[in-house]
Every structure is written in C-alpha cells, then in structure tokens.
C-alpha cells in the first residue's frame, strides 16, 4: 500500500509543477502583451508586473473555454496610476482595457472585419439570443 500512496503523491506533485509551469508561461505572455500594448498607446507599464486576477468560462468560437483576466497598472503622464486589464484565452489576447482605450476581439468571424486594432473605436458586438418561438 505504501508504493501506491507514494505513486499518488508523485503524480500530484508532478501535476502541481505542470500547472505552475503552464501558468508561468501564460503570465509571461500576458506581460509581453501588456508591455506591447502600453507602448503602442503611449502608456508606461508600472512595476513591469501583471497579475492573474480572475478566471471565467466563456463561449468562444463555438466552445466553452477558460479565459484568464490579468490586471496591471499604467501611467498616462508619469504622475498617476491607472488600472489596466487584459483577458487571454491560451496565448490569444481577447480583450484589453486601458485608461484611454477599450478593445475587444470579436467573438464571431463575421465581426472580424469591424475590429479596430490601432484606434479608439470599440466595435459593437451583435447580440445573439435564442428567440422565444411560440406555436
């Protein structure tokens, strides 16, 4: 019985290390995205830190996936601290909120043409609702 308990403990430890490595790589990607977007919009990323602040289930491209929310602080003029947030699915940036801009990646392929990557225009998302059909 001791061998089975040792094997189980080893599997649990390996799973924890694996999850930590995956989340560490995802955080590095989030830091890269935050730094790149702040530079693109003329903001300063403060403390060079990005922290995981939430996880949610989201319906994206026909599947339910986990979307991670990262929070960080930016400065517009060097004398202030403003909150910034970004959401990622895997290595894909799906949403970004900065003090001066709010961008979302369209959920549906037909909305991709209305995406605004380099401006302050926020594309409207279509509301897809199940219609109540009564006979």
UniProtKB/TrEMBL annotation:
The keyword Transmembrane applies. It comes from the Bacteria. Keywords: Membrane, Transmembrane, Transmembrane helix. Pfam families: DUF3301. The chain crosses the membrane at residues 6-23. The keyword Transmembrane helix applies. InterPro entries: DUF3301. This is DUF3301 domain-containing protein. It comes from Dyella monticola.
């Amino acid at each position: 019985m001791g061998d089975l308990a040792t094997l189980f403990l080893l599997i649990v430890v390996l799973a924890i290390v694996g999850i930590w490595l995956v989340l560490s790589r995802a955080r590095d990607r989030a830091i890269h995205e935050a730094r790149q977007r702040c530079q693109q919009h003329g903001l300063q990323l403060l403390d060079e830190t990005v922290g995981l602040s939430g996880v949610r289930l989201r319906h994206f491209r026909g599947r339910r996936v986990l979307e991670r929310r990262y929070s960080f602080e930016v400065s517009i003029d060097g004398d202030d601290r403003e909150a910034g947030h970004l959401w990622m699915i895997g290595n894909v940036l799906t949403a970004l909120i900065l003090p001066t801009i709010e961008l979302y990646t369209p959920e549906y392929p037909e909305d991709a043409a209305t995406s605004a990557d380099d401006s302050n225009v926020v594309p409207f998302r279509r509301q897809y609702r199940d219609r109540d059909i009564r006979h």
